[in-house]
Amino acid sequence: MAMTTVHLMRHGEVHNPDGVLYGRIPGYHLSELGHTMAQRVATFFAEGDHDIARVIASPLQRAQETATPIAGALELELGTDERLIEASNYFEGKTFGVGDGSLRRPQHWPRLINPWRPSWGEPYVEQAARMRAAIDDARRSVEGREVVLVSHQLPIWITRLSYENRRFLHDPRKRECSLASVTSLRFDGDRFVGLHYQEPVADLLPGANKVAGA
């Protein structure tokens, strides 16, 4: 069977001076460092041992800006797939912390009662389902080659847990999905056979996991 690789890439750093959870709010663009990250990953794919046939991104601005230089470096047209979008979240537009954020206000506490679902946003099972559907369609369209899908931290991480048959409940601080990271899923025909995680911009990541949003 044909070996196909689907690279799930998280977008680069976002300009977010107010430290809000921006989620699906439009208008959040890459910071200067984020653009540097995107260019670095474009070089990583263009100059590495890759056979990439397509580049597809979430419709959100930060993902589009991350994917654009990658598609350009590979001389490919950038595609968009709504299923790669960030997870919806009740706390969008709010600061999210115990001492100075939304968690100090009792009216928000009912949203935290069920971390398994989770009760504050799009169910994990729905995130995994839409992401896996997008992955399957992209994989079939480039059978035997590679495709880059630019998405967001939580959907990528939940998708990885799904493929590895691990439970969805997790500590967000321990997600292995840093800014501009690449989680590569390998398939033998339709069968998932493994994954590999890389951080092409690891040297640009001091404090990256503490950046608000995803």
CATH superfamily: Phosphoglycerate mutase-like
* Quaternary structure state of the chains depicted: single chain
Predict the CATH topology: Rossmann fold
Radius of gyration using CA atoms only: 17 Å
What is the strand content?
Answer: 15-25%
Structurally, how many domains make up the residues? 1
Architecture (CATH level 2) name: 3-Layer(aba) Sandwich
**Describe the biggest sheet?**
6 strands, mixed
Shape: globular
Q: What distance lies between the first and last C-alpha atoms, to the nearest angstrom?
A: 35 Å
Low-confidence stretches: 209-213
Structure description:
The structure is a single chain. With 214 residues, the protein is α/β, with parallel strands linked by helices. It has a single domain (3-205), classed as Phosphoglycerate mutase-like (Rossmann fold), CATH 3.40.50. Helix content is 27%, strand content 18%. It contains four helices and six strands, in the order E-H-E-H-E-H-E-H-E-E. The chain has helices spanning 32-47, 61-73, 124-141, 153-163; strands at residues 3-10, 52-57, 78-80, 146-151, 182-188, 191-198. A six-stranded mixed β-sheet has the order 3-2-4-1-5-6, with helices on both faces. Strand 5 and strand 6 (191-198) form a beta hairpin. It is globular. The model is unreliable at 209-213 (pLDDT under 50). InterPro entries: His_Pase_superF_clade-1, His_PPase_superfam, PGM_Phosphatase. One of its GO terms (cellular component) is cytoplasm.
